[in-house]
Amino acid sequence: MTGFSRPDTGASGPPPAPEAPVSRSTQPARRRIRRAVTGLMVALAVLLVSSVTGLLPVQIMRVGSESMAPTIATGDLVLLDRGHQGVARMDVVVVERPDTGVLLVKRAVALGGDQVGIEDGVLVVNGAPVCEPNIDPDRLDGVWFGPQTVPAGAVFLMGDDRGSSIDSREFGPVSADDVRGRVTHRLWPSPGALPVDRC
User: Whole-angstrom Cα distance, residue 100 to residue 109?
Assistant: First the structure.
């Protein structure tokens, strides 16, 4: 007697469940997120370019010399506030060097009508020594300058590293109208407000 066998269907169990279709509602959400991220990156790029080129009230600048050390070092990124309202003594400012047009970062140590000098490394304004906690007078031992009276409407600039700074001692006082703005913050490498150079 011949045995009866079922035809082999190749199925070893129940048929697989059909794959769940991708929800159409998640596709527009992904597109929206992608567009938002792209838009944010474009906006940040535009803001950065506008700031560096000076189109905004604030501008990012890279410092190119050690003349403001130890307050600001070469390569630091600083924030320039171009909407400043006048200059006060000891403000850190950006100004065009009168003889070359190069932008300089310096400290406004004296204003119009002030008498300014350096006596054995100590800054003296109107006959009184100025307390500068960020300046090491031992590094300036033996440095003398002036005194000199600052013309009305001008500012007298010095770098914090008085021994190596090219400043108003060389090119003279500059017009207060030529000040581009105040440096208020360092952005890199150690973000934060500049230290206050007053005792």
Answer: 22
